């Protein structure tokens, strides 16, 4: 894909739906708003499940960005 914008995801899903008759009941994705909105727009009855791996990856990144992964901060939390 050339980018991760809403219109790009919508075009991908429209193509899958039109050419391959792809009409999922459930889709798993990361936490991207663009992909979530595209799924909702193209497949309004589809159930969206968020990927646990991507959630944990995001959580670890946030913890590191906040500086909460140091031993000093860990002791303060406990």
What does this protein look like?
The protein is built from four helices and two strands. The N and C termini lie far apart (44 Å). The chain has a two-stranded parallel ribbon. The protein has 78 residues and is mostly helical. Helix 1 (6-20) packs parallel to helix 2.
Order of SSEs, N→C?
A: HEHEHH
* Largest sheet features: 2 strands, parallel
Number of strands: 2
Low-confidence runs of at least 5 consecutive residues = none
Strand portion, in percent?
Answer: 5-15%
Kindly provide the radius of gyration, computed on alpha-carbon positions and rounded to a whole number of angstroms. Answer: 18 Å
Approximately how much helix is present in the residues? Answer: 55-70%
Mean pLDDT value: 90
Count of helical stretches: 4
Order of strands, widest sheet: 1-2
Given the C-alpha coordinates, what overall shape results? elongated
Query: Distance N terminus to C terminus?
Result: 44 Å
Structural class: mainly alpha
Give the structure's gist in a few sentences.
The protein has 78 residues and is mostly helical.
Write the layout of secondary structure elements.
Layout: H1 6-20, E1 26-29, H2 33-42, E2 47-50, H3 52-65, H4 71-77
Parallel strand pairs: 1-2
Helix pairs in contact: 1-2
């Amino acid at each position: 894909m050339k980018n991760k914008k809403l219109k790009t995801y919508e075009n991908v899903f429209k193509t899958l739906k039109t050419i391959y008759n792809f009409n999922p009941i459930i889709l798993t994705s990361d936490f991207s708003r663009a992909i979530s909105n595209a799924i909702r727009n193209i497949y309004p009855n589809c159930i969206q499940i968020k990927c646990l791996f991507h959630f944990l990856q995001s959580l670890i990144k946030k913890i590191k960005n906040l500086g909460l992964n140091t031993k000093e901060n860990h002791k303060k939390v406990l």
